[in-house]
């Protein structure tokens, strides 16, 4: 999408049979672009290094729902659990959990037994640290990491929900939202934005984006800062490195104390 609509037409893509993605929620415009320019649908998936395999996926035979990472693959049982390890009803946010065991389940974490046991704090379940919800048809939706959630009124809001709003603004090409605060009672959000080619970062655009989020999600959203970057930090495979953005936010908070 960044390189333009004409790029795929320069190459022979006839050998492509299936496209699977990971690491970023697929929004409607991304799905439409791929279908139009690549002549194939994008199939989002979910996995962690700790799981050793793709555990949730959009299969080729499934209808794709924008924003969904799909359904558990054969051999994997997944659920959404509350803070007491109890299953939650449909469309209720909780922590994504996998029923143990499965073939590629990790056996330990090198020199960190405490962290390893935290993954298995509820008997029979591997707690992923990702917040998610499930709909009536069994599709799972990632809502971000547990430490990125904030409470706005009586509702928990994750970074993906805010990023979904940001992507609707015409100036936003890429977005990442990080939750961080020097005080647990005072959560704040920081948005990192890469602008589209026809826009220039400015204080006016900064304020406009903040107002856009509040108008389309909640006026109580504590969006503290919008920072413009040339590019977001990613792995070689294109997965967003949120930890680098967290370090940047933490350093700024420390400097402000």
Topology:
Layout: E1 19-21, H1 28-37, E2 42-46, E3 56-57, E4 71-72, E5 78-81, E6 94-99, H2 113-119, E7 125-134, E8 140-145, E9 150-152, E10 155-157, H3 159-166, E11 172-180, E12 188-195, H4 203-216, E13 223-228, H5 242-256
Parallel strand pairs: 1-2, 12-13
Antiparallel strand pairs: 2-3, 3-4, 5-6, 6-7, 7-8, 9-10, 11-12
Portion of residues in beta strands equals: 25-35%
What gap, in angstroms, lies between the N and C termini?
Answer: 40 Å
Low-confidence stretches: none
Order of helices and strands: EHEEEEEHEEEEHEEHEH
CATH architecture of the largest domain: Roll
Structure description:
The chain folds into two domains: 8-146, Luciferase, domain 3 (Roll), CATH 2.30.38; 149-256, GMP Synthetase, Chain A, domain 3, CATH 3.30.300. Helices cover 21% and strands 26% of the residues. It has helices at residues 28-37, 113-119, 159-166, 203-216, 242-256; strands spanning 19-21, 42-46, 56-57, 71-72, 78-81, 94-99, 125-134, 140-145, 150-152, 155-157, 172-180, 188-195, 223-228. A hairpin with a 2-residue loop joins strand 9 and strand 10. The model has no long low-confidence stretch (mean pLDDT 90).
List keywords for this structure.
Luciferase, domain 3; GMP Synthetase, Chain A, domain 3; 13 strands; 4-stranded antiparallel beta sheet; 5 helices; 21% helix; 4-stranded mixed beta sheet; alpha+beta; 257 residues
């Amino acid at each position: 999408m960044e390189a333009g609509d004409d790029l795929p037409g320069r190459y022979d893509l006839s050998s492509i049979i299936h496209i699977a993605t990971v690491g970023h929620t697929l929004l409607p415009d991304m799905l439409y672009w791929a279908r139009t320019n690549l002549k194939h649908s994008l199939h989002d998936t979910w996995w962690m290094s700790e799981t050793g395999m793709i555990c949730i996926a959009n299969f080729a035979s499934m209808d794709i729902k924008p924003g969904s990472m799909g359904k558990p693959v054969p051999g994997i049982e997944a659920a959404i659990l509350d803070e007491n390890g109890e299953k939650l009803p449909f469309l209720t946010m909780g922590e994504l959990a996998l029923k143990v065991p499965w073939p590629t389940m990790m056996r330990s974490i090198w020199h960190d037994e405490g962290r390893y046991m935290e993954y298995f704090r509820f008997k029979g379940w591997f707690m992923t640290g990702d917040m998610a919800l499930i709909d009536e048809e069994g599709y799972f939706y990632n809502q971000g990491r547990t430490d990125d959630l904030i409470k706005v009124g009586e509702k928990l809001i994750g970074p993906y929900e805010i990023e979904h709003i940001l992507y609707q603004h015409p100036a936003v090409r890429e977005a990442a939202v990080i939750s961080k605060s020097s005080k647990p009672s005072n959560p704040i959000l920081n948005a990192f934005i890469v602008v589209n080619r026809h826009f220039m970062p400015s204080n006016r655009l900064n304020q406009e984006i903040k107002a856009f989020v509040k108008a389309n999600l909640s006026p109580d959203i504590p969006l503290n800062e919008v920072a413009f970057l040339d590019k977001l930090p990613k792995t070689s495979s294109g997965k967003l490195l949120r930890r680098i953005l967290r370090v940047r936010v933490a350093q700024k908070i420390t400097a402000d104390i």
